[in-house]
Amino acid sequence: MAKIAVLGGTFNPIHNGHLHLIKRFSEKIGFDRVILIPTKVPIHKQEACLAEAEHRVRMCQLAAMECGCEVSDMEVRRKTPSYTVLTLEELKRRFPKDTLYFITGEDMFLSLLRWHKPDRIFQLAVICSAPRSTEGMKKMEEYAKVLKTHGAVTILENIDFLPISSTLVRTAWQNGEDISSLVPAAVMAYMERHRLYKE
Ligand code: NAP
After folding, report:
1. pLDDT mean over 78-106
2. 0.90 exceeded by pTM
3. Atom 11 in ligand 1: which residue has the minimum CA distance?
4. Which among 5, 23, 79, 176 counts the fewest CB atoms within 10 Å?
5. For ligand 1, is residue 136 a contact (CB within 6 Å)?
6. 96: phi > 0 → left, psi -120 to 50 → alpha, else beta; which?
7. Considering the domain boundaries, does residue 198 fall inside one?
């Protein structure tokens, strides 16, 4: 029985905060595979300057080379909205004997009960989450108790989070600042080559 982790994201763009999250959970849980799954269009937020899905997938592939992850374009190819429950159902069909772990940061964790079919999500995957604020862990522990009543199995890790977000990366990039400590070098080169987020 393999342990398969999924980090779903808008990845607009992927950055070192995402990779750090994966690394910390991989160290703790020892995943056999980690799959990055970029959303086609985020259903939960209006994203300013959303790069085309093909660019976000490509940047994930470049970042994945650094962390030994895989990238799936299943949500980008799917005609229906990028509901996480559909993604996990598809993975469960492909890997029926394996255990799925869905990784999230603080904000998404605290919104899980508002997602499409949350109880089914909890049947399909263990939820791994980490705070990205100093007071986050306490809120998450309280919320985990509520999720448990919905059948969720959660693993919370109080990791040393990196204060990086995609918005921060895009803003710094638009202002011509050095973003080499925020994203992998290959991602930065890709953004430059395709003039992403410049307008
Ligand atoms: P994102 O902005 O690219 O981020 C992906 C994940 O990485 C998020 O959970 C985020 O945490 C976390 N993260 C980013 N920077 C971090 C840092 N510096 N340290 C620690 N964690 C960090 O993607 P997103 O737009 O939040 O979407 C996440 C996933 O949730 C997607 O797969 C989306 O489809 C899914 N989702 C599904 C539904 C649904 O099915 N109805 C609804 C909402 C979201 P935060 O959570 O704190 O931002």
Report:
1. 97
2. yes
3. 105
4. 79
5. no
6. alpha
7. no
Q: Which of 21, 69, 108 to mutate to test the pocket of ligand 1 (most atoms within 8 A of CB)?
A: 108
Which ligand 1 atom is the nearest neighbour of the CA of 111? 43
Interatomic CA distance for residues 151 and 161, integer angstroms = 27
Residue 199 belongs to some domain of the structure: no
* pLDDT (average), residues 67-86: 95
Neighbours of 115 (CB within 10 A): 15
Residue 141 counted as domain residue: yes
From atom 10 of ligand 1, which residue's Cα is the shortest distance away?
105
In a domain, 45, yes or no: yes
pLDDT of residue 23: 96
pLDDT over 90 at 116, yes or no? yes
Locate the ligand 1 atom nearest the alpha carbon of residue 166 and give its number. 2
Nearest CA to ligand 1 atom 12: 105
Kindly report the CA angle at 54 between 11 and 171, in degrees rounded to 5?
40
β-pair type (3-9, 33-38): parallel
Enter the tokens of residue 99: 């255990």
Say how far apart CA 37 and CA 35 lie, in whole Å: 6
Residue with tokens 């990238």: 71
- Per the structure, the count of domains in the chain is 1
Return the CATH number at 80: 3.40.50.620
119 Cα to the center of ligand 1, angstroms: 18
